[in-house]
């Protein structure tokens, strides 16, 4: 019986995602596919054995972004990043982060929450014995 990878120009989706360095491991790639969150040419797939060919468009969530990737070539190995970048075209690159996105926590009004060092010094000055 011939392996599915023997068809020229096609490759399993989990292996291709790993070769293209879009996910850190083939297990993570297979998990993404079986979760039903990945679409190939607008068709939701749920099997990691699904074959992809050059020209297919993949849509899936990755981190905070939805990635839209066009397959340019099947991979032959998991090589360095510049080599992996030749396997696909990023149709919707992530938007650059703004200064508002970099806030660590929710903003709070002045005077609420934990006192600052300046507040502590003012409080100690009020409590200080005036005879000292």
Rounded to the nearest angstrom, the radius of gyration is 26 Å
Number of helices: 4
State the share of residues found in helices, binned by percent. Answer: 10-25%
Coarse shape: rod-shaped
CATH topology of the domain at 4-94: Structural Genomics Hypothetical 15.5 Kd Protein In mrcA-pckA Intergenic Region, Chain A
- The low-confidence parts are 1-5
- Amino- and carboxy-terminal Cα gap: 95 Å
Average pLDDT score: 86
Under CATH, the homologous superfamily of the domain at 4-94 reads RNA-binding S4 domain
- Secondary-structure element order, N to C: EHHEEEEEHEH
CATH class placement of the domain at 4-94: Alpha Beta
Fraction in beta strands: 15-25%
Structural class: alpha+beta
State the strand order across the main sheet. 3-2-5-6-7
Strand element count: 7
For the sheet with most strands, the description reads: 5 strands, antiparallel
Give the quaternary arrangement of the chains: single chain
CATH architecture of the domain at 4-94: Roll
């Amino acid at each position: 019986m011939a392996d599915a990878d023997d068809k020229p120009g096609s490759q399993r989706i989990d292996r291709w995602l790993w070769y293209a360095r879009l996910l850190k491991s083939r297990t993570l790639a297979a998990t993404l596919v079986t979760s039903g969150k990945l679409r190939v040419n607008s068709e939701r797939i749920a099997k990691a054995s699904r074959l992809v060919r050059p020209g297919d468009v993949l849509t899936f969530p990755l981190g905070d972004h939805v990635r839209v990737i066009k397959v340019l070539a099947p991979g032959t190995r998991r090589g360095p990043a510049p080599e992996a970048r030749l396997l696909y075209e990023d149709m919707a690159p992530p938007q650059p982060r703004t200064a508002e996105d970099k806030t660590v926590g929710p903003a709070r009004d002045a005077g609420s929450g934990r006192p600052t060092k300046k507040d502590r010094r003012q409080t100690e000055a009020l409590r200080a014995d005036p005879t000292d």
